[in-house]
User: What shape does this take?
Amino acid sequence: MEKQSNDAKKPKKQHSAPARNWVGDNGKIIEPLFADYFLSQHPMRCFQGRLFTVDGMIEDEAPLKKEIYEQIRYYATTSVARRIEHIMQAIKLACASEPPKIQTDRIHVRNGTYFVDGHFTPEKEYCMNRLPIAYVPEAPAPTRWLQFLNELLYEEDIPALQEYIGYCLLPVTKAQKMLLMVGKGGEGKSRIGLILRELFGSSMYTGSLQKVETNRFARADLEYKLLLVDDDMKTEALPQTNNIKTLVTLEDKIDIERKGQQSVQGTLYVRFACFGNGSLHALYDKSNGFYRRQLLLTTKEKPVGRVDDPFLIDKMRNEKEGILLWALEGLHRLIQNNYQFTISERTAANLKEAMEQGNNILGFLKSEGYFEIRQGAKCKSTDFYKVYERWCLDNLEKSLAASTFIHHLKDNQKSLGIVYDDKCIGTNRGFHNVDIALFLPVDVPSPWD
Assistant: This one.
C-alpha cells in the first residue's frame, strides 16, 4: 500500500522522445542528417525550388511541415516555426537536382505512363507534369460530354476542339496555335474550363491573357505549365502582342523574371485556351502573324427557353476517364496530320472576319469603286491614303494612321500586285499599278461636310 502511494507521487512522463541519429549529443537537431532521414521516409526531388514525388509536384507543403513538427517537437523548444522553415530548405537542398528532360513522346498520368505510340505502362518516373487522371482504356464513351459539345458547337468545329485538348496533353508547341472560343454569353463555354481542370490539375493555370502580354512577371507563373485558361477574355484590344506571339510558337528557353529576383532562362511550353464574348484584337499589330496563331471557334446561340442543368458539370466530371480517351483520339489525329488542325470552312471564315474587324484596311482593299489595280498606273501614297479615308467615312469606320496604312501595303505588295517606290511620281513616294483617278476624285467632299 505504501509503495503504491509513493509511485503515485512520482511525476508521470508526458512524452517519450524516440532516439534519432539526427540529434546531436547536446540535444540539438542536425539539419543535414534530418533531411537525409526525412527523404528516406518520403522520397522526393526538388526542381526549381519546388518539391516533387513521382506522382507530381507537391502543391501544398503544409502536410510535410506538420510531419516535421511532429518529429522535432521534443528537440526544438523555441522558434519552432522558423526551425521548420530552415529544415524545409535543408530538405530541398538535399534533394535538389536538374529538372527532368522534357519528353514529348509520353503523357504522365495518375496510374502510369501513356506513350503516343499507343502503349501504356504502370511504371512512373519523375516528371514536371503528371496529370491527376488515370488512363483507363476500357472507360465508356463520355456521352454527356459529347452531348454538351453538340449543343455548344457546330458539328464541324468539334474535331478542332478535340485536337486542341489532345495537343495540350504534350509539352510541345509545334502546332503554333492558341484556342479562342467566342459567343454571346450564357452558352456554357466556361464548363469546358472546369473539365480541363479535371484533366490537367496543377499543370493548368487559370489567369488573364492580357496579363500575360502586359505584366513582365506573368511568364514566371507559366513555367512548366501545359495550359493557361482564360475563361473571361477581355474584349478590349491588346496594346501589344509580342509576348503572346512568342509563347504560342516558342520552342526554346526564354527569359522569365520573378519579383525581386534576377531574370533567368526558363522553359515554357504553355498553350492558351480563352473563352469570351468577342474576338481578340490588337491595338497596333495589324499583321497576319497575330491572327494566324489563332484557332477561332464560335458557339451556337443559346436556345430560347433552355433550362440549364445545375448538375451538368458533376455528370461530365464522372466521365473524365472517357474524356481523356476522346482527347487522345484528337491528339493522334493531330500528329498524323503533322500538327495541322482540322479547320472547318466556318472556322476559316471566323478568322477572316476577325482579321477584317481588327484591320479595316483589309476591307478597304476588297472594296470596289475606290481604286483599281491596273498595270502601268501610278498613285502617290498621300492620294491613296485619302481614298482610304474616304472609304472609312462612307462605311462608318475609323481610319488607321497613315504609317500603318502604308506599312500594310508595303508588307503585302507582292500579294496585292503593287510595287512601292520612293520616287514613284516625281520625288513623291507612291505605288505602281494603282489607279484611283477613274473611280473617285481625291478631294471629293464628304456628304456630311
